[in-house]
Amino acid sequence: MRRVYLVLGFIFIALGFVGAFLPVLPTTPFLILATTCFARSSPRLENWLLSHPRFGPTLRAWRERGAIPLRAKLLALAGISAGFLLFWIGSAPGPILMASVGTLMLVGLVYVFTRPSA
């Protein structure tokens, strides 16, 4: 299982790296998953991520308190709002689909905003 976690950790690192350059793919959730996988496979790589100058503070805040930075919360709100607006204008969904997508997005926002701020 150690090798499986190691491979998954590298896959999540790659997805996080791509997410750093593509606005539609998040970086931090993939790095959180990578840190979790490395905790089970490679303490050296786990420590590398947790002490990384850019991503380490966010990863440590999540691990210690489940905290999300306020800036990330506001970006999530802006991104989800823009995504819903584009969905609504671009696809002209029926009321049931619009309510379903809106509810799912709202649940995500509630989760994000109920986490402590880093």
UniProtKB/TrEMBL annotation:
InterPro entries for the chain: DUF454 (IPR007401)
Residue ranges of the TM segments: 6-34, 70-90, 96-114
Record-level GO cellular component terms: plasma membrane
Keyword Membrane (UniProt): yes
Record keywords, A-Z: Membrane, Transmembrane, Transmembrane helix
Keyword RNA-binding: no
Protein known as: DUF454 domain-containing protein
